[in-house]
Design brief:
37% of the residues lie in helices and 19% in strands. The protein is α+β, with helices and mostly antiparallel strands and 256 residues long. The strands form four sheets. It has a four-stranded mixed beta sheet. The chain has a three-stranded mixed beta sheet with strand order 9-11-10. Helix 3 packs antiparallel against helix 6, helix 6 runs antiparallel to helix 7 and helix 6 crosses helix 8. The longest helix has 16 residues.
Length: 256
Amino acid sequence: MEIGQKQAFTSFLEKLIDAGILDKFEFPFPYRSEKRYALPQVPMLEVLQSLKPNSYYTHATAAVVHGLIGTETERRTIYINHEQRPHIRGELADQPRIDAAFKTKARVSSNAINLGGTEICMLNGMHTGQLGVITAATRLHQSRSATIRVTGLERTLIDIVVRPSYAGGVETVLSAFRKARDKVDNDLLMHTLAQLGHVYPYHQAIGWYMDKAGYPLAALELIATLPKLCRFYVAHQMSQPSYDDKWALYVPASLA
């Protein structure tokens, strides 16, 4: 588009905004500022989802959609994920690597903005081919229902185990597992976990959450068959954690 055409188009957009026909949205993300125009009836969640191709809602936001955690978390932060390009993953982590990683703070995305009192966090998660992503209708305290792409129940449970800091912490994740107990497909959970191919043994943490949440014996026996080659951690940088021998897992002393 030539300069004159661009100026004319911008002027036309401004007239539509002044007339109330279009709304203008600016998203000053640290890594890249974005701008969008939309009809007034388009829900904000759908506008946000247009910022990156094939993006989807995840972690606490997905957990709220599935009724696993309370809406107070949704009001604090909305998590939307745009996957990285495919790359070769590393080998399974050994004990020294696990110990070193989980004695430090968990990495938290800084690509976030505050929008009307709600933090919008744009994640750049590992490439999964959008595994376990579904389409769902939700309001999330909006006046209109939005049609969004969001991780399904089983993928959401895995994701909040991997990043409990994006879901309100270990206790909130445990509460989510309790709420999901009677509606989760345990076979699908296991299949999704295997497909994700994490280098850390998150199955040990998932097994512990399921055990604490009172999952059926058959589900516990299924995940217990996976090898426990290393001691693992349910969260990063825990102070004086307790060790759960059954799951070879360090957990908060308050939840032991």
